[in-house]
Automatic annotation (TrEMBL):
Pfam families in the cross-refs: PTS_EIIC
GO molecular function terms noted in the UniProt entry: protein-N(PI)-phosphohistidine-sugar phosphotransferase activity
Transmembrane segments: 41-64, 76-97, 109-127, 147-169, 189-210, 230-252, 259-275, 295-316, 328-348, 354-372, 379-397, 403-422
Coiled-coil annotated spans: none
PANTHER family found in the cross-reference section: PTHR33989, PTS SYSTEM N,N'-DIACETYLCHITOBIOSE-SPECIFIC EIIC COMPONENT
Subcellular location: Cell membrane
Protein name per the record: Permease IIC component
Role description: The phosphoenolpyruvate-dependent sugar phosphotransferase system (PTS), a major carbohydrate active -transport system, catalyzes the phosphorylation of incoming sugar substrates concomitant with their translocation across the cell membrane.
Keywords of this entry: Cell membrane, Membrane, Sugar transport, Transferase, Transmembrane, Transmembrane helix, Transport
Organism: Pediococcus cellicola
């Protein structure tokens, strides 16, 4: 690279290290962000299992659907999604409160805090009293939308408030203390009585207060005032582009970009799942395009879309260094793991790879956006699959063969964008190997022991 380009890279590096990276580091170290991140990531198994059952019942093939209906299997397949994906907020509120308790130094009370948070969350949900004709007594009916993706933000806020109140009370020793000699499991049970009473009283008052407003419930208020506007804001192409650029810049300068922005986006993406799955099952357009799978689409092979880079290295490397590196990173790359490449090659702070690493995901995003908007490629549902799920397989699980094919095309695009920059690296490596291992004579390499 010429001196002018190096000066530009140094100025960018100086800005990132002095201004940008410290802010990103502080954000990622916020304990509430960590609790939300760990709590939502713990939902992976529940979401994946629910998604599999939902997809099995939603394959839009007339003969298959007729078979499911006639055999009653469609009813069987609907059981699991109803208590997994459609009840996701229930698990969120418990797991976030559980993780927050551990992070804030109350590991011994983490389960209890999670349970109290779950009860407080349920207190906020209004019950409708109905008495069907001929029934002996009225029944309390809960709107299940409140415990699904619509209640995601309420679950987060409830977990944070309950954990904070519980810890505040415990730190002041406002607990019922049992005499010495009482078994620990008994005395520990009494410790929760006062915190639970205060928490549930507060949440009962909150529910009563909102029942007097036009919003009817706290969940409806949060969904309309907070969750929906945030989902709309982050669900736009410009906002998504900015987030991707931030993540890639952080990665390039040695900060885990995904760990920085994903905790912020996870709750929003979880809120998309219910609506996207309902639209998919009804054969309608997916309403929320910019979901977690759109992010994963840009990380084929890992951050920076480096699977194409690895393939190029494996096929075209002439230097011993990059031939060995390619054999080392190809298998992890197929499972979207590229830390050995980012930190081992390295990609970080490598001026030659700055452009392809930052802009390959952007190119794939813009092309994918156009193809999805024109209907050529199906929009992924946005299910929370393990990030190590290989391409094509993950595309099928996201509900679209066309999207699975697009993942292959995106990998080819990655090959094209990285190829010229890798050739520069490889040529430089070959020259260094020639210099270090022998002398050049008549265009060939002669080792010292053969001279």
């Amino acid at each position: 690279m010429d001196k002018e380009a190096l000066l530009i890279m140094k100025s960018i590096q100086s800005f990132m290290e002095s201004k940008f990276i410290p802010i990103a580091t502080r954000i990622s170290n916020i304990r509430w962000i960590q609790a939300i991140s760990r709590g939502t990531m713990s939902l992976m198994g529940v979401i994946v299992v629910g998604a599999i059952f939902s997809l099995l019942g939603s394959v839009n093939i007339p003969v298959y659907q007729t078979f499911l209906k006639n055999t009653g299997i469609n009813t069987l397949l609907s059981f699991i999604p109803a208590v997994t994906i459609n009840a996701i907020a229930l698990y969120m509120v418990f797991l976030i409160a559980y993780q927050a308790a551990r992070i804030f130094g109350h590991k011994e009370a983490s389960v209890n805090i999670g349970i109290i948070a779950l009860v407080a969350f349920l207190v906020l949900i209004p019950l409708k009293i109905e008495q069907p004709k001929g029934a002996l007594q009225a029944s309390n009916i809960m709107n299940l939308n409140y415990i699904g993706s619509q209640g995601a933000f309420t679950a987060i806020i409830t977990a944070m408030i309950v954990t904070s109140i519980y810890i505040w009370i415990i730190n002041r020793n406002w607990t019922i203390k049992m005499p010495e000699g009482v078994p620990p499991q008994v005395s520990n049970a009494f410790i929760d009585i006062i915190p639970a009473f205060i928490v549930l009283l507060i949440f009962s008052l909150i529910r009563w207060g909102f029942s007097l407003t036009s919003y009817v419930s706290a969940t409806d208020f949060i969904y309309k005032i907070l969750q929906t506007p945030i989902q709309t804001l982050t669900g736009s192409l410009p906002a998504f582009l900015i987030l991707i650029i931030i993540a890639q810049l952080l990665w390039f300068f040695g900060i885990h970009g995904s760990f920085t922005i994903l905790p912020i986006l996870m709750p929003i993406w979880i809120g998309y799942i219910g609506q996207n799955m309902a639209a998919y099952k009804a054969g309608q357009a997916i309403p929320h395009m910019f979901n977690i799978e759109m992010y994963n689409m840009l990380c084929i092979g890992g951050a920076g879309g480096t699977l194409g880079f690895v393939i190029v290295m494996l096929i075209f490397a002439k230097s011993v260094q990059y031939k060995k590196m390619a054999r080392l990173v190809i298998l992890p790359g197929l499972f979207n793991i590229n830390e050995p490449l980012i930190f081992g090659l390295p990609i970080i702070l490598n001026p030659i790879l700055f452009l392809p690493f930052v802009f390959t995901p952007i190119i794939i995003l813009l092309l994918g956006y156009v193809l999805m908007k024109t209907g050529i490629v199906g929009v992924p549902i946005g299910l929370f699959l393990p990030s190590s799920t290989p391409i094509v397989f993950s595309g099928i699980l996201q509900g679209s063969w066309s999207y699975a094919i697009w993942q292959v095309v995106a990998t080819f695009i990655s090959c094209l964008t990285y190829y010229p920059f890798f050739k520069i690296l490889d040529k430089k490596a070959v020259q260094e190997e020639i210099t270090n291992s022998g002398v050049v004579k008549n265009g060939g390499l002669i080792n010292d022991d053969k001279r």
